[in-house]
Amino acid sequence: MQVNRGLVFWGVALITAGAVALAVQAGAVGEQPARAIWRAWPAVLIVIGVSVLLARTPFALASTVLAGVVVGGLAGTLAAGWPGAVDLGCGGEPSELVTADGRFADRGDVELDFTCGDLEVSTAGGAEWQLDARHAPGSEPRVTSSDGGLRVEADGGGGFGFGFGFADGRQEWMLVLPTDPTLDLMVDANAASSRLDLAGATFGQLSIDANAGDLRLLLGDATVEELSIDANAGSITIAAGPGGRVDGRVELNAGSMELCVPEDAVVRIALTDDNSTFSHNLEGSGLARSGDSWRRGAGAPDVGLRVEGNAASFTLDPDGGCR
Predict the structure, then answer these.
(1) Among 50, 82, 114, where does a domain finish?
(2) Most C-beta atoms within 10 A of its C-beta, which of 45, 47, 63, 85?
């Protein structure tokens, strides 16, 4: 009997990833062991290489199983949303500082192209914005602005592989955005820990592309007419507050998502791709189901999201609140 090694690899990898993700979320695997796992990430290349070399030997199946276990173990820590994974390989001390400030008119277009490090965005009253961008030597970000736009782009950043083991350009940005003008905010964050505290602001579009990192989106009473999040290998936390309104979509691959909403908020959650690799807690959430949508309350939703997940999990109002 001939065994399909490709199916064996993916089967073992998915089983291992699921087991590790459950262990991390249950607290059976702590932060330090997870860090130790990621320090050994080059073992993935070694194991896969050995598997290729042994492809036509009696050890082919065993090497395939081993490769699946190693790849699945690493993927499982990311699927669980283990915080801090993105710090590995994100080198360089952010010892230098770039500052900038400006003022928007009635509207403002903001683009953040961030790689490797910590990104923090907050809000303040008025029409002025302010940026403090710390960076490693030789990795000064590029800042361009006008009365209607702001673009901040990391120089070099994390390099190949989302910054795991290759980066020497760690960044720490703190950006304060104004609440008076309507904003369009686009964030591209790779190998980053991103915290966006956007209370009080109004967004026409809020677009976030996050890879290999954790994203905390604290909306408070912000209004977001069109939210779009694409995240790969990481965790997402979205917290809406009283008086806020958000509508949009989230696509999550190999990660976890938590959503916290006020008890009296009108909520509508639609799962556009409820597949076997995507888990959620909506069945026991108290929301009423109709087709692929879950809803609480009548009228226009305060929180309306379309969620798609692959090798991912979605939790509405987790016990103890959003992390």
Answers:
(1) 82
(2) 85
The domain of 9 spans 5-82
Same domain, 54 and 184: no
pLDDT tens sequence across 241-299: 999 999 999 998 877 899 999 999 999 999 975 566 688 899 888 899 999 999 999 99
Question: What sign has the CA pseudo-torsion 46, 50, 51, 52?
Answer: positive
Using the predicted structure, report yes or no on whether residue 139 has a pLDDT greater than 70.
yes
182 shares its domain with 248: yes
For 80-90, what is each residue's pLDDT tens digit?
A: 555 444 444 46
How many structural domains compose the chain?
2
Answer for the pair 203, 223: CB distance below 8 angstroms, yes or no: yes
pTM of the model: 0.75
Helix 60-79 and helix 5-25, axial crossing angle in degrees, nearest 10: 30
State the average pLDDT over residues 187-192: 91
- Whether residue 22 lies inside any domain: the answer is yes
**Type of residue found at 106:** D
State residue 176's pLDDT score: 98
